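Lecture notes, continued. The same structure-token format from the folding unit now serves as the input rather than the output. Read the line below as a description of shape only.
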């Protein structure tokens, strides 16, 4: 399996990170893709890349929740790193209406700036799109609109932690993006039981978002990469296919994305 989204550099793993990773490897995880948040997460992420070369794979980008007044400095750091060494993906980037609406214009500017970087380096992107607490502001739709306005037909990537409806899933797929499916698929009211049966496996990749959003039966506790097995099992149930078919197809999807 390929874990396409885990914050394994997070301080929640400080006490048992190597043991946590060993459990992931024992569960069959072959690669772990690490999304970046801002300049403070880069060193920890790159240290894990050095410790587990070819296994722990770093992205580079500025997470929308970390976009503040100094967002241009954060973007400069990303640009500088991209000019010095290769990364397989820009991420995680996007729009977050959940936590703080004060910097939404800056989030949008940063998103567009990072789409330009993706085009410049011909890289896929990893999108964070979280709706407002009242559900009135739809971040998935806003990201789709910004991508359409940007207009680069070769733009591709993953809508991480996808939790939208079937229509939104189809719009995402129509833009040549994959759906990142994680623990929400196991939640009773997560809504994925109404979406995934209608989505071909070729449009799906696996993720955990560890240490966040642990799947059932670990919901509410610290998430970890080994739990990706539970996500794959749930997708297999909803799709009425074998666990192995889910693993094989999602792995192919992930590898094709970063080696395209």
């Amino acid at each position: 399996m390929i874990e396409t989204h885990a914050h394994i550099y997070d301080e929640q793993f400080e006490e048992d990170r190597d043991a946590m990773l060993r459990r992931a490897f024992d569960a069959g995880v072959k690669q772990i893709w690490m999304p970046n948040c801002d300049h403070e997460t880069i060193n920890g992420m790159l240290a894990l890349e050095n410790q587990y070369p070819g296994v722990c794979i770093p992205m580079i980008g500025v997470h929308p929740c970390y976009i503040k007044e100094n967002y241009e400095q954060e973007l400069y750091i990303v640009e500088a790193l991209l000019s010095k060494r290769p990364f397989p993906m820009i991420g995680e980037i996007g729009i977050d209406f959940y936590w703080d609406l004060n910097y939404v214009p800056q989030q949008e500017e940063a998103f567009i700036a990072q789409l330009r970087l993706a085009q410049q380096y011909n890289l896929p992107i990893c999108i964070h799109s979280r709706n407002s607490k009242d559900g009135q502001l739809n971040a998935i739709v806003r990201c789709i609109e910004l991508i359409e306005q940007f207009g680069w037909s070769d733009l591709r990537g993953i809508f991480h932690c996808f939790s939208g409806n079937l229509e939104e899933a189809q719009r995402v797929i129509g833009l040549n993006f994959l759906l990142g499916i994680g623990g929400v698929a196991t939640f009773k009211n997560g809504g994925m039981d109404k979406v995934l049966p209608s989505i071909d496996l070729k449009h799906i990749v696996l993720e955990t978002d560890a240490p966040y959003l642990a799947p059932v039966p670990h919901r509410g506790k610290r998430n970890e990469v080994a739990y990706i097995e539970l996500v794959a099992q749930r997708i297999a149930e909803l799709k009425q296919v074998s666990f192995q078919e889910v693993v094989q197809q999602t792995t192919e999807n992930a590898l094709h994305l970063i080696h395209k």
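Point for the exam: The helical segments are 17-26, 39-51, 71-84, 104-121, 139-150, 166-174, 228-239, 243-259.
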